[in-house]
Q: What sequence folds into this?
């Protein structure tokens, strides 16, 4: 296997710069206009106290939460696509967001506080992960198809429970529930859990890159080349699940990023997991940060759902790349 | 942790001391809100933001209209409210816009606003009054409390008393009136109504009406047309999409077996006068009472 090409290194550096730029954009743009100079004075501790409050209490935490959530979802999506060898795989395909949503909606239905909503979303995601893990083991051997089918069917089950709860819930709780299902970063409470999971998992997946490249060619071939397929597959499944659970706990089920970002990068950078995984985290983070910034500023003070903007930005870009590719 | 315990014991005492025995020249004002929290201000609020159209209306009615510096979309009454700077919609607040207006009091709506965002405002040190009036009497007390916070006690007390006496005279007038069974339609698709715990049901009761779905479990609930046919109410009263749009009454006309249809007892009441918990509900209730009188006359 060749060493990582200079082109890939350049691409990763470029994406890092893009990520930094997206965070800068998120901190300088808002319904209160603030120039770069005013931003710098606020960051260095002089300047308008209102600007300091806006940056440190509202914009920076939200931008960091958006970046980490986007990174978590894109990385989870890239891992799922390798694991299931299916281009349609995204972080939610195996029912994790469904489990999280059932947990979150149940605590909203019971009128519990906001901290409990996050907690039960995380518990629901873990429950769903364990359920899929337990059932997909079955009695036979592990195959990607078996895992995929188990996950998809469990996701369908959660979907039915969600619809049931929505139809039972009182009218005044419905908007909150719908926004949670759409994903919304104004609900993000603190970005730190997301960062504490994103960075270690990313570091952990770097040494796995070579084995994942082999796994991407299929379990039989991987086994023939000396990769312990089953432990690797479950490790990847576990990591992707934790990433997704934390993302969903932070900002609700934000769609689209996990599916499209890894594909976009593969079209440009090729399918070397050692490059694609870190690149996904960076690009996913940058995309969601820019999208969230636009969502809260385009029609300010009216606030748009972030999913609208991710799709508006992502769909044409993706189609353009796909059209150009050979 | 003895320190934490000590602090927990001391805090309420300190708060109480701050609220009751303020030093000379510093007139602290304190009221409790609808979430049973104490809201205390060092001085009457001069920059208030209302996070629901209803709260905007209540503030103006309490005489604090001058002090309101921000409102959410659809805050359309009184007309002056339309000119206020906007801070997003009640479902999605633009917290930056809120902070930029430097409010010294925010009136939140617990069943409408996202609580994450309201909690964030509180964490940032903005005093928040949570408003959720569910009874006529609570509209009056809200007017009084908002007036205390805004330092406009005279106007607020007057508005609260006017609402109380207006309702009291309606209550006396209809105390002996023949009961009329009523179906109140909140929404068309899906078909929705309210139970007895809702303020609209209290308005119906004031007029001597009986909500046919009053005993059901949820405050607002979806029901089928068949359920309405089974209850066969004497009157059907609907809100609508606008101030003068009785279109929701038309579908009922295909059921001539209904008593309400047979006697043409289908009435429209503008939703703004009955579906927002504000003093305007007195006018809405009067309209409702007139309609129920019409039903009694046609029997």
A:
């Amino acid at each position: 296997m060749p060493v990582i090409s200079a082109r890939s290194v350049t691409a990763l550096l470029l994406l890092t710069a893009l990520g930094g730029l997206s965070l800068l954009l998120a901190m300088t743009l808002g319904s209160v206009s603030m120039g770069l100079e005013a931003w710098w004075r606020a960051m260095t501790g002089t300047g308008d106290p209102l600007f300091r409050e806006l940056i440190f209490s509202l914009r920076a935490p939200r931008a960091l939460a958006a970046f980490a959530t986007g990174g978590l979802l894109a990385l989870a999506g890239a891992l799922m696509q390798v694991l299931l060898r299916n281009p349609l795989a995204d972080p939610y395909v195996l029912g994790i967001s469904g489990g999280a949503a059932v947990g979150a909606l149940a605590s909203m239905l019971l009128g519990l506080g906001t901290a409990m909503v996050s907690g039960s979303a995380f518990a629901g995601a873990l429950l769903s992960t364990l359920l899929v893990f337990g059932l997909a083991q079955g009695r036979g051997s592990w195959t990607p198809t078996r895992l995929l089918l188990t996950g998809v069917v469990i996701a369908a089950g959660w979907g039915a429970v969600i619809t049931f709860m929505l139809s039972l819930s009182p009218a005044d709780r419905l908007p909150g529930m719908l926004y949670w299902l759409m994903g919304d970063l104004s609900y993000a409470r603190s970005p730190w859990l997301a960062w504490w999971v994103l960075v270690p998992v990313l570091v952990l997946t770097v040494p796995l890159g070579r084995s994942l490249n082999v796994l991407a060619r299929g379990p039989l071939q991987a086994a023939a080349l000396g990769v312990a397929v089953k432990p690797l597959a479950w490790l990847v499944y576990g990591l992707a699940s934790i990433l997704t659970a934390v993302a969903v706990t932070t900002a609700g089920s934000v769609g689209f990023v996990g599916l499209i970002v890894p594909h976009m990068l593969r079209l440009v950078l090729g399918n070397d997991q050692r490059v694609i995984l870190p690149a996904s985290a960076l690009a996913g983070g940058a995309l969601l940060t820019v999208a969230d910034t636009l969502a809260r500023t385009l029609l300010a003070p009216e606030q748009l759902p972030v999913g609208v903007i991710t799709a508006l930005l992502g769909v044409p870009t993706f189609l353009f790349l796909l059209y150009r590719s050979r | 942790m003895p320190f934490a315990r000590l602090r927990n014991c001391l805090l309420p005492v300190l708060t109480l001391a701050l609220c009751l025995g303020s030093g000379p020249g510093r007139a602290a004002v304190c009221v409790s809100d609808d979430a049973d929290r104490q809201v205390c201000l060092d001085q009457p609020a001069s920059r208030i933001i209302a996070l629901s159209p209803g709260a905007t209306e209540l503030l103006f009615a309490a005489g604090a209209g001058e002090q309101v510096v921000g409102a959410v979309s659809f805050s359309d009454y009184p007309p002056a409210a339309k000119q206020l700077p906007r801070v997003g919609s009640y479902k999605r607040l633009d917290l930056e816009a809120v902070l930029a207006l430097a409010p010294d009091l925010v009136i939140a709506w617990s069943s409408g606003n996202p609580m994450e965002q309201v909690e964030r405002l509180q964490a940032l040190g903005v005093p928040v009054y949570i408003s959720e009036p569910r009874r006529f009497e609570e509209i009056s007390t809200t007017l009084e409390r908002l007036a205390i916070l805004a330092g406009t006690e005279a106007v607020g007390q007057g508005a609260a008393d006017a609402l109380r006496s207006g309702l009291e005279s309606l209550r006396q007038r209809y105390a002996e009136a023949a009961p009329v069974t009523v179906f109140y339609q909140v929404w068309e698709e899906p078909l929705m109504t309210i139970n007895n715990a809702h303020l609209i049901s209290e308005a119906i009761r004031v007029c001597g009406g009986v909500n046919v779905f009053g005993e059901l479990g949820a405050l607002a609930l979806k029901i089928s047309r068949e359920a309405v046919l089974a209850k066969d109410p004497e009157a059907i009263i609907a809100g609508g999409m606008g101030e003068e749009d009785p279109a929701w009454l038309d579908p009922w006309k295909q059921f001539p077996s209904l008593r309400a249809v047979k006697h043409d007892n289908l009435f429209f009441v503008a939703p703004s006068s009955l579906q927002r918990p504000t003093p305007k509900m007195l006018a809405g209730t009067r309209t409702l009472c007139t309609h129920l009188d019409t039903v009694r006359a046609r029997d």
About this structure: The longest helix of chain A spans residues 49-84. The CA atoms of residues 7 and 267 of chain A lie 14 Å apart. Chain A touches chain B at residues 30-32, 50, 53-54, 57-59, 113-114, 167, 170-173, 175-176, 179, 184, 186-187, 189, 296, 300-303 (CB under 8 Å). Chain A is about 75% helix and 0% strand.
